[in-house]
Specification:
Length: about 200
Amino acid sequence: MTQEEKFLVPRDVYLKSGIHIGTKFRTRYMEQFIYKTRPDGLSVLNLQKIDERVKIVATFLAQYDPKEIIIISRRENGWKAVELFGKLAGVRTFAGRYPPGILTNPNLEEYTEAKIVLVVDAWPDRNAVIDAVKVGIPVIALCDTNNQSNFIDLVMPCNNKGKKSLGLLFYILTKEFLKAKGALKEGEDIKEKLEDFTEE
């Protein structure tokens, strides 16, 4: 079996989405996921590691009841992808502003007893990360080359800023999550296309 066949989507689909294109800034933690630095100074993430981590994240999330999962994206480029994942997986999502206290204050109407949180970017979504840490639930974060990993339990390396990259990531995550949950049979596909996950 070649590397190619092991990938969740063909290599060129990954490459077209720019999922592996990082930033000019790299944190020490993210170095383990960086494949090389381009002549223009941009760091490039390792596709193999991205692919492996998507599987790990999907399997990890699938251990929870969808109602126990929350996904948060302050970053507008992730809204459509996050909302569609939420709809198909039955998971609660917050696209836009994260309502403070929904994890920590039982008196709020929006209060939710989540058991795991996934954030699109640990920096803009830091309030959700801090709340999750306060109540002691694991945090999965999509991390670009410039992200810190403080308080993050599981890092998903990827370009967490681009529409195409986030669309592809959540498209794959949806399929892998539903497979792990037994909602999709091996070789079966979701009706939604990759384009449906990508912001216009």
